[in-house]
Amino acid sequence: QVQLVESGGGLVQAGDSLRLSCVASVRPFISYSMGWFRQAPGKHREFVAAISWSGRDSTYADSVKGRFTMSRDNPKMTVYLQMNSLKPEDTARYYCETGPIVWPPQLEKFQSWGPGTQVTVSS
Q1: Helices (H) and strands (E) in the chain — how many of each?
Q2: Going residue by residue through the chain (123 aa), what tens digit of pLDDT does each one get?
Q3: For the chain, what is the radius of gyration of the CA atoms?
Q4: Is 79 helix (H, G, I), strand (E, B) or coil?
Q5: I want to staple 99 with a disulfide (CB 3.0 to 4.6 A). Which of 21, 26, 33, 108 is the partner?
Q6: How many C-beta atoms surround the C-beta of residue 88 within 10 A?
């Protein structure tokens, strides 16, 4: 059973920062690209960020580029999403997902395994 446990969400004001964490149980952890996706009620699921197995490569949605930074700590089997300068449009439930090891990431093949963590940004 693959388990991904997201944490770090909360209710913040525009301009604030949050750091999301995702602890994974999948092994071998380094055999996967990892990604963050988000979905708000009534909206399509959207890609946020992805990182390669080594952590050397990452890519971001245009809407978060320059504000969000994804990283991974393979020995700890944990990925992070540092979210700065948060905007109300960032409000969504954020999901940590696994994807194929290939790069560039095959986003359509990423899968969510956890409950996500809610991020709400007020103005």
Answers
A1: 0, 11
A2: 689 999 999 999 999 999 999 999 877 888 899 999 999 999 999 999 999 999 999 999 999 999 999 999 999 999 999 999 999 999 999 999 999 999 999 999 999 989 999 999 999
A3: 13
A4: strand
A5: 33
A6: 11
Among 92, 84, 106, smallest CA distance to 6 is for 92
For CA atoms 95, 101, 104, 106, the dihedral sign is negative
Both structure tokens of 27: 């092994």
Instruction: State the virtual CA torsion across 73, 79, 57, 92 in degrees, nearest 10.
Output: -170
Q: What is the DSSP letter of 101?
A: S
Backbone angles phi, psi at 29, to 5 degrees: -60, -40
